[in-house]
Please model this.
Amino acid sequence: MEKINIIGAGLAGLTAAITLAKGGRHCRLISLQPSERAQSVLAEGGINAALDVMGEGDSTEYHFEDTMRGGVYLADETAVRRLTDAAPDTVKWLASLGVPFNMADGHIVQRNFGGQKKKRTAYAKSSTGKMLMTALIDETRKYEAAGLVERYPHHEFVTAVTEGGECTGAVVRDRYSGSTVLFGGRVIMCCGGLAGLFPSMTTGTTQNSGYAAARLFEQGVRFSNAEMLQYHPTTIGIPDKRCLVTEAARGEGGRLYIERGGEKWYFMEEKYPELKNLMPRDVVSREMYFVRREKDCGDTVFLDMTGLSQEIWQKRLPDLRAEIMHYLSIDPAKQPVPVHEGIHYFMGGIHTDAFHRTNIAGLYAAGECTSQYHGANRLGGNSMLGAVFGGKTAAEDILAAAEMTAADETAYSGSETVREPTDAVKRQLGSLLYEGLGIVRSEQGIDKALKKLDELEASEGVFPRMLLGRAMLLSARERRESRGAHYREDFPEKNDALRAPTFAVYRNGRTEIKIGD
Model:
Protein backbone atom coordinates (compact mmCIF):
# COMPACT_ATOMS: atom_id res chain seq x y z
CA MET A 1 0.00 0.00 0.00
CA GLU A 2 1.27 3.46 -0.90
CA LYS A 3 2.26 5.68 2.01
CA ILE A 4 1.99 9.42 1.52
CA ASN A 5 5.02 11.47 2.55
CA ILE A 6 4.29 14.74 4.36
CA ILE A 7 7.29 17.05 4.72
CA GLY A 8 6.65 19.30 7.72
CA ALA A 9 4.61 18.75 10.88
CA GLY A 10 3.01 22.13 11.51
CA LEU A 11 -0.62 23.08 10.95
CA ALA A 12 -0.69 22.07 7.29
CA GLY A 13 1.22 18.82 7.83
CA LEU A 14 -0.83 17.69 10.81
CA THR A 15 -4.14 18.45 9.10
CA ALA A 16 -3.01 16.55 6.00
CA ALA A 17 -2.01 13.57 8.15
CA ILE A 18 -5.31 13.56 10.07
CA THR A 19 -7.32 13.79 6.84
CA LEU A 20 -5.41 10.96 5.17
CA ALA A 21 -5.65 8.75 8.26
CA LYS A 22 -9.39 9.37 8.62
CA GLY A 23 -9.68 8.26 5.01
CA GLY A 24 -7.79 5.04 5.78
CA ARG A 25 -4.58 6.05 4.01
CA HIS A 26 -1.19 5.55 5.65
CA CYS A 27 1.25 8.44 5.78
CA ARG A 28 4.65 9.46 7.09
CA LEU A 29 5.01 12.73 8.97
CA ILE A 30 8.59 13.88 8.32
CA SER A 31 10.04 16.94 10.05
CA LEU A 32 13.22 18.48 11.41
CA GLN A 33 11.56 19.23 14.74
CA PRO A 34 8.70 17.64 16.65
CA SER A 35 5.37 19.37 16.07
CA GLU A 36 5.62 21.11 19.43
CA ARG A 37 8.46 23.20 17.95
CA ALA A 38 6.97 23.91 14.52
CA GLN A 39 6.73 27.52 13.42
CA SER A 40 2.93 27.25 13.60
CA VAL A 41 3.25 27.32 17.40
CA LEU A 42 4.48 30.92 17.15
CA ALA A 43 1.30 32.22 15.49
CA GLU A 44 -0.50 34.49 17.91
CA GLY A 45 -3.39 36.57 16.65
CA GLY A 46 -6.11 34.27 15.40
CA ILE A 47 -7.86 32.50 12.53
CA ASN A 48 -10.46 34.05 10.24
CA ALA A 49 -13.94 32.73 9.53
CA ALA A 50 -17.25 34.47 8.83
CA LEU A 51 -19.08 32.91 11.78
CA ASP A 52 -21.28 36.01 12.06
CA VAL A 53 -21.52 35.80 15.85
CA MET A 54 -20.68 39.42 16.61
CA GLY A 55 -23.90 41.00 15.34
CA GLU A 56 -22.26 42.67 12.35
CA GLY A 57 -23.88 40.73 9.50
CA ASP A 58 -20.64 39.10 8.35
CA SER A 59 -20.67 36.56 5.51
CA THR A 60 -18.31 34.29 3.57
CA GLU A 61 -18.80 36.63 0.59
CA TYR A 62 -17.47 39.57 2.62
CA HIS A 63 -14.54 37.41 3.72
CA PHE A 64 -13.86 36.52 0.08
CA GLU A 65 -14.02 40.15 -1.00
CA ASP A 66 -11.71 41.32 1.81
CA THR A 67 -9.18 38.60 0.98
CA MET A 68 -9.13 39.39 -2.74
CA ARG A 69 -8.95 43.14 -2.12
CA GLY A 70 -6.24 42.74 0.52
CA GLY A 71 -4.16 40.68 -1.93
CA VAL A 72 -4.79 43.34 -4.61
CA TYR A 73 -6.41 40.71 -6.84
CA LEU A 74 -3.38 38.51 -7.44
CA ALA A 75 -4.73 35.54 -5.46
CA ASP A 76 -6.33 32.53 -7.15
CA GLU A 77 -10.01 33.50 -7.10
CA THR A 78 -11.26 29.90 -7.20
CA ALA A 79 -8.96 28.86 -4.36
CA VAL A 80 -9.87 31.88 -2.22
CA ARG A 81 -13.59 31.26 -2.62
CA ARG A 82 -13.16 27.63 -1.56
CA LEU A 83 -11.09 28.81 1.42
CA THR A 84 -13.52 31.43 2.67
CA ASP A 85 -16.59 29.25 2.09
CA ALA A 86 -15.00 26.47 4.15
CA ALA A 87 -13.70 28.75 6.92
CA PRO A 88 -16.70 28.53 9.31
CA ASP A 89 -16.71 24.72 9.27
CA THR A 90 -12.92 24.71 9.62
CA VAL A 91 -13.03 26.79 12.81
CA LYS A 92 -15.95 24.76 14.19
CA TRP A 93 -13.96 21.56 13.53
CA LEU A 94 -10.98 22.96 15.40
CA ALA A 95 -13.22 23.91 18.30
CA SER A 96 -14.60 20.36 18.34
CA LEU A 97 -11.04 19.08 18.78
CA GLY A 98 -10.71 21.14 21.93
CA VAL A 99 -9.14 24.42 20.81
CA PRO A 100 -9.97 26.80 23.69
CA PHE A 101 -11.14 29.78 21.66
CA ASN A 102 -12.19 32.79 23.71
CA MET A 103 -15.93 32.42 24.36
CA ALA A 104 -18.83 34.59 25.52
CA ASP A 105 -22.52 33.75 25.91
CA GLY A 106 -21.94 30.30 24.44
CA HIS A 107 -20.29 31.40 21.20
CA ILE A 108 -16.76 32.01 19.92
CA VAL A 109 -15.63 35.63 20.34
CA GLN A 110 -14.13 37.31 17.27
CA ARG A 111 -12.11 40.50 17.00
CA ASN A 112 -10.95 43.00 14.40
CA PHE A 113 -7.88 42.36 12.30
CA GLY A 114 -6.19 44.45 9.63
CA GLY A 115 -7.81 44.92 6.23
CA GLN A 116 -11.22 43.69 7.40
CA LYS A 117 -14.27 45.72 8.38
CA LYS A 118 -15.92 42.90 10.33
CA LYS A 119 -14.93 41.18 13.56
CA ARG A 120 -13.94 37.89 11.95
CA THR A 121 -10.85 36.63 13.78
CA ALA A 122 -11.36 33.84 16.32
CA TYR A 123 -8.58 33.59 18.89
CA ALA A 124 -7.31 31.81 21.96
CA LYS A 125 -5.89 34.68 23.99
CA SER A 126 -2.60 35.56 22.23
CA SER A 127 -1.46 31.95 21.76
CA THR A 128 -3.81 30.80 19.00
CA GLY A 129 -1.17 28.90 17.04
CA LYS A 130 -0.02 27.00 20.08
CA MET A 131 -3.60 26.08 21.00
CA LEU A 132 -4.40 24.89 17.47
CA MET A 133 -1.22 22.85 17.34
CA THR A 134 -1.90 21.24 20.72
CA ALA A 135 -5.34 20.10 19.59
CA LEU A 136 -4.07 18.78 16.24
CA ILE A 137 -1.13 16.97 17.87
CA ASP A 138 -3.54 15.17 20.21
CA GLU A 139 -5.81 14.23 17.31
CA THR A 140 -2.85 12.94 15.28
CA ARG A 141 -1.73 10.72 18.15
CA LYS A 142 -4.92 8.69 17.82
CA TYR A 143 -3.91 7.75 14.31
CA GLU A 144 -0.29 7.18 15.30
CA ALA A 145 -1.55 4.64 17.83
CA ALA A 146 -3.57 2.97 15.08
CA GLY A 147 -0.50 2.74 12.83
CA LEU A 148 -1.90 5.05 10.16
CA VAL A 149 0.54 7.89 10.87
CA GLU A 150 4.28 7.23 11.24
CA ARG A 151 6.38 9.95 12.82
CA TYR A 152 9.87 10.78 11.55
CA PRO A 153 11.17 13.71 13.62
CA HIS A 154 14.79 14.96 13.24
CA HIS A 155 14.63 14.01 9.54
CA GLU A 156 15.44 16.52 6.82
CA PHE A 157 14.22 16.66 3.24
CA VAL A 158 17.03 16.10 0.74
CA THR A 159 15.29 15.93 -2.63
CA ALA A 160 12.13 14.89 -4.42
CA VAL A 161 12.37 11.79 -6.61
CA THR A 162 10.86 12.18 -10.05
CA GLU A 163 10.33 9.69 -12.83
CA GLY A 164 8.85 10.66 -16.17
CA GLY A 165 7.76 14.05 -14.87
CA GLU A 166 5.99 12.54 -11.84
CA CYS A 167 7.00 12.71 -8.19
CA THR A 168 7.32 9.15 -6.86
CA GLY A 169 8.94 9.76 -3.51
CA ALA A 170 11.31 11.77 -1.36
CA VAL A 171 14.84 11.25 -0.12
CA VAL A 172 15.23 12.18 3.56
CA ARG A 173 18.14 12.08 5.97
CA ASP A 174 18.10 11.17 9.66
CA ARG A 175 20.04 13.98 11.32
CA TYR A 176 20.85 11.78 14.32
CA SER A 177 22.24 8.73 12.54
CA GLY A 178 23.20 10.35 9.24
CA SER A 179 21.47 7.57 7.29
CA THR A 180 19.60 8.48 4.12
CA VAL A 181 16.47 6.69 2.89
CA LEU A 182 14.12 6.91 -0.06
CA PHE A 183 10.46 6.92 0.88
CA GLY A 184 8.27 5.97 -2.06
CA GLY A 185 4.84 7.53 -2.59
CA ARG A 186 3.33 10.92 -3.31
CA VAL A 187 4.64 13.93 -1.44
CA ILE A 188 2.90 16.85 0.28
CA MET A 189 5.30 19.70 1.02
CA CYS A 190 4.30 21.55 4.21
CA CYS A 191 7.78 22.97 4.78
CA GLY A 192 6.90 26.54 5.77
CA GLY A 193 8.09 29.87 4.44
CA LEU A 194 11.50 31.13 3.38
CA ALA A 195 12.68 32.64 6.67
CA GLY A 196 16.06 30.94 6.31
CA LEU A 197 16.88 33.05 3.25
CA PHE A 198 16.91 36.11 5.54
CA PRO A 199 18.88 35.10 8.67
CA SER A 200 18.01 37.18 11.77
CA MET A 201 15.59 39.35 9.76
CA THR A 202 12.29 37.50 10.11
CA THR A 203 9.77 36.57 12.77
CA GLY A 204 9.90 32.93 11.65
CA THR A 205 11.63 30.13 13.50
CA THR A 206 15.39 29.96 13.10
CA GLN A 207 14.99 26.26 12.26
CA ASN A 208 13.24 27.01 8.97
CA SER A 209 16.13 27.03 6.51
CA GLY A 210 14.18 27.41 3.26
CA TYR A 211 16.27 24.61 1.74
CA ALA A 212 13.36 22.32 0.87
CA ALA A 213 11.56 24.94 -1.21
CA ALA A 214 14.81 26.04 -2.84
CA ARG A 215 15.71 22.48 -3.80
CA LEU A 216 12.28 22.00 -5.36
CA PHE A 217 12.76 25.19 -7.37
CA GLU A 218 16.07 23.80 -8.62
CA GLN A 219 14.20 20.64 -9.65
CA GLY A 220 11.80 22.57 -11.86
CA VAL A 221 8.87 23.18 -9.51
CA ARG A 222 7.02 26.31 -10.56
CA PHE A 223 6.84 29.26 -8.14
CA SER A 224 4.59 32.31 -8.25
CA ASN A 225 4.62 35.80 -6.73
CA ALA A 226 8.08 35.17 -5.31
CA GLU A 227 8.60 38.93 -4.94
CA MET A 228 5.76 39.26 -2.43
CA LEU A 229 7.24 39.42 1.09
CA GLN A 230 5.09 40.70 3.91
CA TYR A 231 6.73 43.12 6.31
CA HIS A 232 4.83 43.11 9.58
CA PRO A 233 4.75 46.66 10.94
CA THR A 234 5.20 45.78 14.61
CA THR A 235 8.19 43.66 15.56
CA ILE A 236 10.97 43.98 18.11
CA GLY A 237 14.55 42.78 17.83
CA ILE A 238 15.70 39.75 19.83
CA PRO A 239 18.77 37.51 19.38
CA ASP A 240 18.87 35.85 15.92
CA LYS A 241 15.39 36.95 14.83
CA ARG A 242 12.55 39.45 15.04
CA CYS A 243 9.82 38.96 17.65
CA LEU A 244 6.28 39.63 16.53
CA VAL A 245 4.07 42.09 18.36
CA THR A 246 0.79 40.59 17.20
CA GLU A 247 -1.69 42.58 15.14
CA ALA A 248 -4.19 41.71 17.84
CA ALA A 249 -2.59 44.50 19.89
CA ARG A 250 -3.87 47.01 17.33
CA GLY A 251 -7.11 45.08 16.95
CA GLU A 252 -7.73 45.64 20.67
CA GLY A 253 -6.95 49.36 20.45
CA GLY A 254 -3.16 49.79 20.22
CA ARG A 255 -2.15 53.00 18.41
CA LEU A 256 0.93 53.80 16.33
CA TYR A 257 2.61 57.18 16.64
CA ILE A 258 5.87 58.99 15.97
CA GLU A 259 7.27 62.13 17.58
CA ARG A 260 6.76 65.12 15.26
CA GLY A 261 7.90 68.52 16.42
CA GLY A 262 8.04 67.20 19.97
CA GLU A 263 4.43 65.92 19.95
CA LYS A 264 2.88 62.52 19.36
CA TRP A 265 1.56 62.14 15.82
CA TYR A 266 -0.90 59.27 15.40
CA PHE A 267 -0.23 59.20 11.68
CA MET A 268 -2.33 56.17 10.72
CA GLU A 269 -5.43 57.72 12.30
CA GLU A 270 -4.88 60.96 10.43
CA LYS A 271 -4.11 59.38 7.07
CA TYR A 272 -6.64 56.53 7.12
CA PRO A 273 -9.63 57.63 9.21
CA GLU A 274 -11.78 54.57 8.38
CA LEU A 275 -9.51 51.65 9.35
CA LYS A 276 -6.82 53.71 11.09
CA ASN A 277 -4.19 51.39 12.63
CA LEU A 278 -5.88 48.36 11.07
CA MET A 279 -5.04 49.08 7.46
CA PRO A 280 -3.45 46.10 5.64
CA ARG A 281 0.06 45.34 6.78
CA ASP A 282 1.77 46.53 3.60
CA VAL A 283 0.17 49.97 3.99
CA VAL A 284 1.09 50.31 7.67
CA SER A 285 4.69 49.16 7.13
CA ARG A 286 5.16 51.55 4.23
CA GLU A 287 3.74 54.48 6.19
CA MET A 288 6.12 53.71 9.06
CA TYR A 289 9.00 53.70 6.56
CA PHE A 290 7.96 57.06 5.14
CA VAL A 291 7.19 58.96 8.37
CA ARG A 292 10.59 58.08 9.83
CA ARG A 293 12.09 59.93 6.87
CA GLU A 294 10.13 63.15 7.29
CA LYS A 295 12.48 65.91 8.39
CA ASP A 296 10.53 66.97 11.47
CA CYS A 297 9.91 63.43 12.75
CA GLY A 298 11.92 61.17 15.04
CA ASP A 299 13.53 57.96 13.91
CA THR A 300 11.37 55.59 15.98
CA VAL A 301 7.73 54.55 15.68
CA PHE A 302 5.97 53.55 18.91
CA LEU A 303 3.00 51.29 19.58
CA ASP A 304 0.95 52.83 22.36
CA MET A 305 -1.03 50.17 24.25
CA THR A 306 -1.29 52.08 27.50
CA GLY A 307 -5.00 52.69 26.95
CA LEU A 308 -5.90 48.98 26.93
CA SER A 309 -7.87 47.76 29.91
CA GLN A 310 -6.60 45.26 32.46
CA GLU A 311 -9.26 42.83 31.25
CA ILE A 312 -7.79 42.91 27.73
CA TRP A 313 -4.28 42.31 29.05
CA GLN A 314 -5.41 39.47 31.31
CA LYS A 315 -7.86 37.69 29.01
CA ARG A 316 -6.73 38.51 25.48
CA LEU A 317 -3.06 39.53 25.40
CA PRO A 318 -1.32 38.03 28.45
CA ASP A 319 1.47 36.29 26.50
CA LEU A 320 2.25 39.41 24.50
CA ARG A 321 2.71 41.47 27.64
CA ALA A 322 4.99 38.81 29.12
CA GLU A 323 7.11 38.64 25.95
CA ILE A 324 7.65 42.39 25.77
CA MET A 325 8.51 42.62 29.46
CA HIS A 326 10.95 39.72 29.05
CA TYR A 327 12.78 41.01 25.98
CA LEU A 328 12.60 44.80 26.41
CA SER A 329 12.05 45.25 30.16
CA ILE A 330 9.08 47.45 29.22
CA ASP A 331 5.58 46.98 30.60
CA PRO A 332 3.42 47.76 27.53
CA ALA A 333 0.44 48.46 29.78
CA LYS A 334 2.34 51.45 31.16
CA GLN A 335 4.84 52.50 28.48
CA PRO A 336 4.77 52.73 24.64
CA VAL A 337 6.83 50.10 22.82
CA PRO A 338 9.35 50.97 20.07
CA VAL A 339 8.52 48.86 17.00
CA HIS A 340 10.00 48.32 13.55
CA GLU A 341 8.94 46.53 10.39
CA GLY A 342 10.22 42.96 10.04
CA ILE A 343 9.84 40.24 7.41
CA HIS A 344 6.95 38.13 8.62
CA TYR A 345 5.35 36.10 5.86
CA PHE A 346 5.97 34.95 2.30
CA MET A 347 2.87 35.32 0.13
CA GLY A 348 4.79 33.88 -2.81
CA GLY A 349 6.04 30.33 -3.02
CA ILE A 350 5.33 27.03 -4.72
CA HIS A 351 2.58 27.54 -7.27
CA THR A 352 -0.38 25.22 -6.87
CA ASP A 353 -3.88 24.99 -8.24
CA ALA A 354 -7.00 25.16 -6.08
CA PHE A 355 -6.44 21.52 -5.04
CA HIS A 356 -2.82 22.15 -4.00
CA ARG A 357 -1.28 20.27 -6.92
CA THR A 358 2.03 21.58 -8.24
CA ASN A 359 3.21 21.44 -11.86
CA ILE A 360 4.75 18.01 -11.10
CA ALA A 361 2.21 15.20 -10.81
CA GLY A 362 2.27 13.49 -7.42
CA LEU A 363 3.75 16.55 -5.69
CA TYR A 364 1.52 18.75 -3.55
CA ALA A 365 2.20 21.76 -1.33
CA ALA A 366 0.27 23.44 1.50
CA GLY A 367 0.85 26.12 4.10
CA GLU A 368 3.22 29.07 3.87
CA CYS A 369 5.42 27.38 1.26
CA THR A 370 2.59 27.80 -1.28
CA SER A 371 1.24 30.72 -3.26
CA GLN A 372 -2.45 30.96 -4.05
CA TYR A 373 -4.54 32.43 -1.23
CA HIS A 374 -2.81 35.69 -0.35
CA GLY A 375 -1.83 37.39 -3.59
CA ALA A 376 0.18 40.57 -3.06
CA ASN A 377 -0.55 40.87 0.67
CA ARG A 378 -1.92 38.52 3.33
CA LEU A 379 -4.67 39.50 5.70
CA GLY A 380 -3.92 38.74 9.33
CA GLY A 381 -5.86 35.66 10.42
CA ASN A 382 -5.79 34.04 6.98
CA SER A 383 -2.46 32.22 7.38
CA MET A 384 -3.58 29.62 9.90
CA LEU A 385 -6.81 29.20 7.96
CA GLY A 386 -4.88 28.66 4.72
CA ALA A 387 -2.56 26.13 6.36
CA VAL A 388 -5.32 24.02 7.91
CA PHE A 389 -7.58 24.15 4.86
CA GLY A 390 -4.64 23.60 2.50
CA GLY A 391 -3.42 20.47 4.25
CA LYS A 392 -6.94 19.09 4.25
CA THR A 393 -7.49 19.91 0.57
CA ALA A 394 -4.25 18.28 -0.60
CA ALA A 395 -5.02 15.14 1.39
CA GLU A 396 -8.58 14.96 0.08
CA ASP A 397 -7.35 15.19 -3.50
CA ILE A 398 -5.02 12.25 -2.87
CA LEU A 399 -7.80 10.25 -1.24
CA ALA A 400 -9.95 10.78 -4.34
CA ALA A 401 -7.25 9.44 -6.67
CA ALA A 402 -6.04 5.90 -7.29
CA GLU A 403 -3.11 4.66 -5.24
CA MET A 404 0.37 4.81 -6.71
CA THR A 405 2.53 1.71 -6.96
CA ALA A 406 5.57 2.72 -4.97
CA ALA A 407 8.40 1.19 -2.97
CA ASP A 408 7.78 1.47 0.75
CA GLU A 409 11.23 2.36 2.06
CA THR A 410 14.66 1.70 0.58
CA ALA A 411 18.19 2.67 1.46
CA TYR A 412 19.24 5.52 -0.81
CA SER A 413 22.19 4.70 -3.03
CA GLY A 414 22.34 8.00 -4.91
CA SER A 415 24.77 10.86 -4.32
CA GLU A 416 22.28 13.65 -3.56
CA THR A 417 22.97 15.55 -0.35
CA VAL A 418 21.71 18.72 1.27
CA ARG A 419 23.75 21.43 -0.45
CA GLU A 420 24.01 24.51 1.70
CA PRO A 421 26.69 27.22 1.95
CA THR A 422 28.40 28.34 5.13
CA ASP A 423 26.55 30.48 7.66
CA ALA A 424 28.65 33.46 6.62
CA VAL A 425 27.58 33.07 2.99
CA LYS A 426 23.95 32.66 4.08
CA ARG A 427 24.21 35.99 5.88
CA GLN A 428 25.74 37.64 2.80
CA LEU A 429 22.93 36.32 0.65
CA GLY A 430 20.31 37.46 3.15
CA SER A 431 21.75 40.97 3.26
CA LEU A 432 21.76 41.42 -0.50
CA LEU A 433 18.26 40.01 -0.82
CA TYR A 434 17.07 42.40 1.89
CA GLU A 435 18.64 45.29 -0.03
CA GLY A 436 16.82 44.39 -3.23
CA LEU A 437 13.54 43.28 -1.67
CA GLY A 438 12.97 45.93 0.97
CA ILE A 439 9.77 47.78 1.76
CA VAL A 440 10.59 50.31 -0.99
CA ARG A 441 12.23 48.94 -4.13
CA SER A 442 13.66 50.20 -7.41
CA GLU A 443 15.22 48.72 -10.54
CA GLN A 444 18.53 50.27 -9.56
CA GLY A 445 18.43 48.62 -6.13
CA ILE A 446 17.36 45.25 -7.53
CA ASP A 447 20.10 45.32 -10.19
CA LYS A 448 22.65 46.19 -7.51
CA ALA A 449 21.54 43.15 -5.50
CA LEU A 450 21.70 40.93 -8.60
CA LYS A 451 25.26 42.09 -9.27
CA LYS A 452 26.25 41.22 -5.70
CA LEU A 453 24.61 37.81 -6.15
CA ASP A 454 26.65 37.24 -9.32
CA GLU A 455 29.81 37.98 -7.36
CA LEU A 456 28.77 35.76 -4.47
CA GLU A 457 28.07 32.82 -6.79
CA ALA A 458 31.38 33.35 -8.59
CA SER A 459 33.31 33.16 -5.32
CA GLU A 460 31.31 30.57 -3.39
CA GLY A 461 29.49 28.46 -5.99
CA VAL A 462 25.79 28.12 -6.78
CA PHE A 463 23.48 26.64 -4.15
CA PRO A 464 19.70 26.06 -4.32
CA ARG A 465 18.98 29.03 -2.03
CA MET A 466 20.88 31.28 -4.42
CA LEU A 467 18.79 30.12 -7.37
CA LEU A 468 15.58 30.86 -5.49
CA GLY A 469 16.91 34.18 -4.22
CA ARG A 470 17.71 35.19 -7.80
CA ALA A 471 14.17 34.24 -8.86
CA MET A 472 12.79 36.50 -6.12
CA LEU A 473 14.90 39.44 -7.31
CA LEU A 474 14.08 38.85 -10.98
CA SER A 475 10.38 38.61 -10.15
CA ALA A 476 10.58 41.96 -8.33
CA ARG A 477 12.34 43.53 -11.30
CA GLU A 478 9.81 42.15 -13.78
CA ARG A 479 6.84 43.59 -11.85
CA ARG A 480 7.20 47.22 -12.92
CA GLU A 481 4.34 48.54 -10.81
CA SER A 482 3.41 48.91 -7.15
CA ARG A 483 0.95 46.34 -5.82
CA GLY A 484 0.43 45.24 -2.23
CA ALA A 485 3.68 44.42 -0.48
CA HIS A 486 5.62 45.16 -3.68
CA TYR A 487 6.29 48.91 -3.81
CA ARG A 488 8.47 50.30 -6.59
CA GLU A 489 9.47 53.93 -6.12
CA ASP A 490 10.28 54.07 -9.85
CA PHE A 491 6.80 52.70 -10.67
CA PRO A 492 4.67 53.96 -7.75
CA GLU A 493 1.27 53.33 -9.38
CA LYS A 494 -0.67 50.10 -9.82
CA ASN A 495 -0.86 48.89 -13.44
CA ASP A 496 -3.98 46.84 -14.19
CA ALA A 497 -2.23 45.31 -17.21
CA LEU A 498 -0.05 43.49 -14.65
CA ARG A 499 -2.94 42.13 -12.58
CA ALA A 500 -1.66 38.56 -12.83
CA PRO A 501 0.76 36.34 -10.89
CA THR A 502 4.49 36.46 -11.51
CA PHE A 503 5.70 32.99 -12.46
CA ALA A 504 9.24 31.70 -12.01
CA VAL A 505 10.65 28.37 -13.15
CA TYR A 506 14.19 27.04 -13.39
CA ARG A 507 14.95 24.84 -16.38
CA ASN A 508 17.84 24.12 -18.67
CA GLY A 509 20.17 25.97 -16.33
CA ARG A 510 18.35 29.30 -16.38
CA THR A 511 15.53 31.06 -14.54
CA GLU A 512 12.51 32.09 -16.59
CA ILE A 513 10.22 34.87 -15.32
CA LYS A 514 6.92 36.05 -16.73
CA ILE A 515 3.77 37.75 -15.52
CA GLY A 516 0.61 35.83 -16.37
CA ASP A 517 0.22 32.53 -18.20
In short: The chain has a mean pLDDT of 95. The radius of gyration is 22 Å. The chain is about 35% helix and 20% strand.
